[in-house]
Each structure stands twice: as structure tokens, then as C-alpha cells.
Amino acid sequence: MKLELRGITKSFGALVANDHIDLVVESGEIHSLLGENGAGKSTLMNVLYGLYEPTAGEILIDDKPVMFAGPADAMAAGIGMVHQHFMLVPVFTVAENVALGGETTGFGGILNLDDTRRKIREISARFGFDVDPDALVDELPVGVQQRVEIIKALVRNAKILILDEPTAVLTPQETDELMDIMGQLKSNGTSIVFISHKLREVKAVSDTITVIRRGKVVGSADPGAATTELASMMVGRAVSLTLDKADAEPGEVTFKVSNLTVMNDAGQRLLNDISFSVADGEILAIAGVQGNGQTELTEAVLGLHKHIQGSIMLDGRELVGRSVRQVLDAGVGFVPEDRQDDGLVGEFSIAENLVLDLYTQEPYSRWGSMNRAVIAKNAKEKVAEFDVRTQSSQDAADTLSGGNQQKVVLARELSRPLKLFIASQPTRGVDVGSIEFLHKRIVAERDGGTPVIIVSTELDEVLELGDRIAVLYAGRLMGIVPGKSSRELLGLMMAGLPADEAQAQLDAPAAGSSGAGDVAPAGDTEGERS
After folding, report:
1. Scanning 39, 306, 359, 484, which has its CA 20 to 30 A from the CA of 166?
2. Is the bond preceding 451 in cis, omega lying within 30 degrees of 0?
3. Counting Cβ atoms within 10 Å, is residue 475 exposed (0-12), middle (13-18) or buried (19+)?
4. Where does the record place the region Disordered (predicted)?
């Protein structure tokens, strides 16, 4: 089935999210839409799937114009979509989720899932999905849940499949399995629109690449194009994709977490007996699929959780039991994973956001009142130093792009002497050019002697920044490994194997192989420092 978009425009008031986009996806082709978060990729696919009505333009399937009043029309036309955030009901079985919206009933109005179960088994056998129709969705690994989403589309005879950032929640091994599945679907004649900002994956799987920047198509590329060329198309200028980072020279261990357990109000363990340390002048990168305890760990350090057992020591001082203000005053710089909700006050000016954790201190405050002149001078300096793109530092923070908002948060947190710097998802939603800048600033903080903790679900970022890498799974520490460890080793750990078992599994086919290097067992507090 051939898909064509002609002049698709989608506006939200004055914001033009898609600007006269032309796109052709041939039958049996994997066509990648490459662009940074906020470029307009997902908006375009929501138009295609009937979730948004286009402001202008038309959609053609097999050269015939079509109009969709909603997703049901798109599905009826042969279009399926797997959203970045799965649209599954966790307490339902696989069969119940697949049947949802197209249920059939038998005698007495009783739900009949026999036909749905049969179709699930047929599709699973054809593509090697290995999905049990009667399994509860919330008991399935994330990678299998994604297969359920694909099955939902295929059961409805989708000939064009949209995959919106499908690898965002997958381990490296699950990503490889998804790439294999995409190849099988292509061989079966299914057309795939693959939406991503990950250059390595796009190059590996695509037949054709279309690059979108700021709502417009800026060009097409062959999968064999250089990574730097694709990156330049995405951001509109030349960028460096490799971080020039010298080996760490760790000093004294000044931050130590011992037997840390965090519970919710119901007594459920969100973190389970975690122990590790970070030395001055090193970066500990914490890897794992989102939702395995990373958020709880950083929030526990900051003093945001009530139910904590164990110890968090910074420079000889216990942080457990201290307020957020006391933790910040102890020298902790913190970049939260959600900059809009937790890192900035959107309606405040950029200048005010740059002193959110300093405005009560001199020279930003005098005799109980904020010193506006000093705050304005500080903002002018930080805007220039961190290359924040704005008309004025008096503009509201929510008028900035995502990358510039992140620069404001980092500028604030790195503008005072720190004894510990924590950055959670430091480059989420940030363009390639800003990533380059932010990574350099984080490494510069390390090189200044500060212990640094980076939490990221982007494995490339973990490998780029980490001097050592800790992996969390289901609230437990799977181990700490050197920063130059293999993606395969980290992927196994992210799937729940302790470091020593993961390394043994990798070494098993080739006895005597050095693999990814020595690893520290799960729960080790130090690990090998590189």
C-alpha cells in the first residue's frame, strides 16, 4: 500500500506545527522521519492517523484521496499506529486489549475472544512474537507489550504501520528484536513509517530518510549518508557527535549511598537496598529503562521522599532527613527530569529562574528584598555564557524552546560552588547542537573536581558521559561497570541480569574472551573506576 501526503499543514493558533509537508511512502518500504523532539514528526503522524484534522493539504492512499474523521477511519483504510506511550489497559489480558474497540459477543451478549485469540496466535507464529493471548499486560516486559501494540494493528489488517519513537522504552536487545520484526513486516509487504531522533537506529533500518526541522521537510537522505550529515540537516548547522573527554582522575570519595531503600505510602519498595559511591572528579552514569527506580533515587537524594531507610552521605554530612532547601544549601546541584514541571517556573522571567535557589542569598537579596539590578546582571552573563537563545532575559521562561529551557536550568545549577551535581535526563527533548554544548559543560564540572551523577535512558548518552555506569532494574542495583563497557552487557543488565551473570552469558560462547572487561557484582559500592 502506497501512502502520500501532499502539502500537509497543521496549525494550533499562531503555531504552525507542520508546514506544507510532502511525503511519499512506497509499498513495502521502511521510511524514517528523522528530527529532534518538537520538530513536528508526531503531529504529522497524528494527522495521518485521524487524531488531528489537517489545516491544509491532503492524504492519498494508492493515489486516491482519503479523509479521516478519527482513528477508526484510518484503521479502516489500513493504517495502524504504535504510540510512544502504549495505549494498553494493564489489568486486561492481551486478547482483551487486542479486541478492545472491535469486540464481538456471543449468545447472551457474552464477550467472545476465541477469534481474537486465534488471530493473535497466527500473527505470533508468523513473526515469532511469542505472545500468550491470555497473559495480563501488566505482567509482560515492555518489549512484549510493544509487540501487543503491533498485533493490535495487524489484527485490523494494517498495511501501513506508524511506529512513533518505538525504542524509547526498550533495552538494546529489545531494540534489536524490534528491528528484526520491522524487517519481517517489510518482507510481508507492510509499509512502515519509523519516527525517531536516534541516528544510529534510523541508519540501520531505513530504506528512505526524510528529515523534518521546525515543522518543515528540509531534505531526504539515503541510509548510507554520514551521521554528521544527518545531524547537520536536523539542526541546520555542523555539529560534532563525539565528545572530547579525557579520562577521569577521581579524587576522594565524598558522596556515598549505603543500603538505601525508598518506599511509597503503601509500603511498596521503589528502591531496594541500593549502595554506591561517587568520587570527586568522576561521572557515575545511571542507566536503565524508565521506571526502574531512577526517579526515586534522585528524589531521595534531594529530600523529596518521606519513607527512606539507609544513609546518604555528602562530604561527611548525612542528607537523609534534611529538607530540600537544606540539601541544596549543602552544595547539591540538581537538574530534574521534567524541566517544565520541576525545573522552571514558566511564567517567571528567565532572570528570575536563574536565581530560583539563590534569591534569598547575597548578592541577589538585600535586607529581605531581591536585588533586581544584580539579578539582571547575572542573567545577562549566564545567557551569554550558556548561549541561551532569547530576545531578553526578562522574557518568560515558557517562551523558550526546550533546549534553551534546559540551558537555563543548567546555568542556574552550575552557577554556584557544588559538592555534588545530579542531572536527570539532561538532554531529553534537546537538539543535537544543544546536546553537544550541555555535555561539554557537564564534563567541565567533573574536570573541576565535582562528583557528578547522570541519569539517562539514552544508552548513547550513558556511554558518552559515564566514567563508570550503574544499572538499575526494578529498584535494584544490577552492578557497576566501567564506562567503556559494551552495549550488550548493559542491555542484559537493563533486562535484569546482575553484572557478573550478564558478563558470564556474554563470555559463554567464546570461552576465554575478555568481553566487556571486569565488572563489579550487583550491590558493589565502589566498582572499577576508569
Report:
1. 484
2. no
3. buried
4. 504-530
Task: Kindly indicate the confidence band of residue 105, based on its pLDDT and cuts at 50, 70 and 90.
Answer: low
Segment 216-248, tens digit of pLDDT? 999 999 888 888 888 888 878 777 767 778 899
Residue 271 lies in a domain: yes
Per-residue b or e along 27-64, where b marks 16 or more CB atoms closer than 10 Å to that residue's CB: ebbbbbbbbbebbbbbbbbbbbbbbbebeebebebeee
User: For residue 459, which of 259, 213, 173, 253 has the smallest C-alpha distance?
Assistant: 173
Q: At residue 271, what are phi and psi to the nearest 5 degrees?
A: -130, 140
Cα separation, 157 vs 182, in Å, equals: 16
Alpha carbon distance 45, 39 (integer Å)? 12
Which grid cell sits at 292? Answer: 526502574
pLDDT digits (tens, 9 = 90+) for 70-91: 988 998 999 988 887 788 999 9
Give CA–CA dist 156/99, Å, rounded.
10
Q: 530 or 519: whose pLDDT is higher?
A: 519
User: Rounded CA gap, 150 and 136, in Å?
Assistant: 16
CA distances 374 to 26, 41, 111, 356, 390, Å, are 59, 42, 68, 14, 19
pLDDT at position 283 is 97
The distance from CA 408 to its chain's CA centroid, rounded to whole angstroms, is 20
End-to-end Cα separation, the chain, in angstroms: 52
In the prediction, which pLDDT does 477 show?
Answer: 97
Are 281 and 213 in a shared domain?
no
Q: Is the same domain home to 81 and 166?
A: yes
Full residue range of the structural domain in which residue 291 is found: 253-331+417-507
Are both 259 and 223 inside the same structural domain? no
Is residue 510's pLDDT more than 60?
no
User: Residue 528: what pLDDT?
Assistant: 43
| CATH assignment of the domain containing 281 | 3.40.50.300
Within 246-310, residue ranges assigned H as helices are 294-302
Per-residue pLDDT tens digits for 139-185: 887 778 888 988 988 888 889 999 888 876 677 777 888 888 889 88
- Taking the C-alpha atoms of residue 528 and residue 483, their distance in angstroms, rounded to an integer, is 9
In a domain, 357, yes or no: no
Element (H, E) at 411: helix 402-413
